[in-house]
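FAQ: What does the model actually see?

It sees only this:
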Amino acid sequence: MSIKQGARVALVNMHLARPGDDLQATTKAYFHAHCLARALVDLGYQVTLYQAFDVHQRQEIAGVDVCGFPLVQAGRNRSNGLMTRLLGLEATGTPNCDALIKYFAANPPEVLHVFGISEWVAHQPVTRWAKNAGCLVSCSDHGGVPSRHPVRRIRQKNALRWSDVFFTPSLERKEMWRGSGLFNAQQRFEGLPEISTSFALSSQELARQKTGMTGNPVVVSTSNLQHRKRPILMLDSFEHLLEQWPDAQLYLFFRFDTLLPEVKNRIANSPKLSSAVTICGSVPHDEMVAVYNSADIYFLTSTYETGPISLGESLACGAMCACTALPSIQLIAEQDQELNGVLFSQTANAAEIAERMAPLKRYVSQATRLRQRSYFDKYLSYDVMAGAMMSALGTLSNSKRV
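And it is asked to produce this:
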């Protein structure tokens, strides 16, 4: 039995990615939860997105009813940060759950979905209220692992117990959470990425005019310069590739730069890399659509990704993928044979990665870009996510008559 059209759906994003007084800017930062809300509206549901914000505010954004609710600063009166951590308490901010519950009581949702692992502990009063009010409740996996802290683990379990369905982006993570002891036998696990992207395929020529990116092929990385992302292995692999791709260019975009000195040193000590690698750093997220549309290949050598948002963004813009064969990436990349790209083992060395990637150059074409976008639309778009989410919840709706 499916959830009937017109049912009231509440999406809750407790992550305040962009503080300030502009609710639209905050809503469109990072999670893009409003895009999932819009897809649900298009399916015929009444949707309200509750977005963590600095103040109470409500407005329509991109055709979606968005309600901003404030955070309560945990630890505001706690001077001992060490004690806060020892007790397993939040050290930054927690949502004003009382305010959310008042909103829900005034207009009770029939379905409640909460984004993000980082606020699992904080959202317990909200999900408990929703479950006791007869709502279908779901949460999405944003990353991390089951807590080992004794107090936080209890609080995690108490928060998660109210969820009917838990969405996670890979079989590996599904089994990790299933065996964590934090869930009961009645709770369901479904494979679904947390978010998608609204990025669109556009003219590569115009995109490159905007970004100034050149190369044959153009290779893009958006991995942070951190140890588990293995940027040095990426540079070593690309250096091998330059023997077969002498005109290739690699562009490095990142937010965190822990290994930036090592990366700069590796490039400086290689004549090949010095003329073929550009360190771009961080750019505003809305400018990345031009970057991805400029790319022929998206390159990732990470050893860990919960659900790589950037891979979905690159596919939406037509790029081929060359990525570590991580469980979350395999879920994305192995739906069928329509996807152009290569996956390589986590144990592959630079020469082996280069060997796997070398054939990709021959597939650089507009036809490939269109095929990548088609793959994204078929498996990874917000429309697909919205349908899959409501289908999974709909199988539980017989007893609840939603």
